[in-house]
Amino acid sequence: MSRYPHLKADVTASLVVFLVALPLCVGVAVASGVPAELGLITGIVGGIVTGIMRGSSLQVSGPAAGLTVLVYEAVRAFGLPVLGVVVLATGVLQIAMGALKLGRYFRAISVSVVEGMLAGIGLVLIAGQLYSVVGAKAPESGLGKIAGLPEAFVDAFGSTRALASLALGVGTVLVLVLWKRLPRRIRVVPAQLAAVGLATLAALVFGAPVATVEVNGLLGSVQPPSLDAFGELAGLGVLGTIVAFTLIASAESLFSAAAVDRLHDGPRTTYDKELVAQGAGNAVCGVLGALPMTAVIVRSAANVQAGARTKASRVLHGVWLLLFAALLPGVLAYIPIPALAGVLVHAGAKLIPVEALVTLWREHRGEALILVVTAVSIVAVSMFEGVLVGLALSVVKTAWDASHIKLDVIDKGAGPIQAYLSGNATFLRLPKLLDSLEALPADRPVELDLSGVHHLDHACRTALENWAARHSSAGTEPVKVTAD
Length: 484
Prior knowledge:
- There is one protein chain.
- By secondary structure, this protein is of the alpha/beta class.
- The chain folds into two domains: 7-396, no CATH class; 405-482, 2-Layer Sandwich (Transcription Regulator spoIIAA), CATH 3.30.750.24.
- It has 20 helices and six strands.
- It comes from Streptomyces citrinus.
């Protein structure tokens, strides 16, 4: 034991993380429209492959609710065989970015864009999984999912099967919400496992007529991408999906790493190495035809809180997932689909940063607007376009904030009017600047001092020259411009 002083703590933590990860791996896979075993494979790879690599010592990787919507869209558009190609290409890109030391730059992505992205994913995830809660088929579009919910719930009250499904789904959510209020000795069991376990027990005891997980076997679910599937890389749709996977998976993993670092006082995350580790995991998942992975804050927080001290805990959690998938796959067939949907509805709700949005609205309304527009764009259009809209808004806001320009006018009543321009003169502030200059008396000479201007873009320079020419043509002395 002296050689492994933290072995007991890490083994205990690994069991806790395994019990948290098990229902989430299965739930994310089912919600993504792929065999449940593929979620377990991604969890296994996240534990054993990514877990053994350097980067962040305590965060845990696996299939994430944050990618569920994107994976579902990709499988629907391109088919399951192409998913492996997309995930493999994502992993290769992540490895390349880590090797080029680009991991740190993901920390520069606006937090509002990331939170807006997660909020949009959460909304679509909740809307889609509520159909599974009532045993109905969800519409394809995000807006269609939300618009069709009232009718789906009304129809559910006319069906015994739908009511049984609704009862299990709602019960699962209630257990997840209320679990933290129970005595500590009961809360030793992770909430997700308890909620799914109780729902499964209830379905068996009462013989509830609800859909359950389909089991294909671990080896039967592994589908390495064929050579024909690689031909899809020539399509713009597939390439766009790869970029979206890479951006979202990398950003979510590195933001998770930053959050996990705040939970413990051990070694800090090396972001470029963590990006390589995530890429290696995704590359292996792609070869196996499994789901993409990210670092997952729920599992990572459980790992830290359970007392994990080294990376051994996350590697062992992958081993436990492998043993379960190999020895007890038949257990999955008893799990009700509405229970897994309830777990994901709860997970989706936690992706929506209500408190952060309220704080942002009070203190930084521009950032709050970026968050909301990103989320709404994802719901209304798609994941990739929504993120692009958010990034574009973030760049525009940054440029707007950086383009501070100030015009001080001194008019002594006689002689020339002195105008002092300072700051960064960009096209974003041009309308207001021109309004101020054109408001100066047309029959008085003007001296324009640009010595305080740090940056003058082409649009502003041209506009100032045109204004000076118009002002001078009114019969007054030519505008005198000084730059030093």
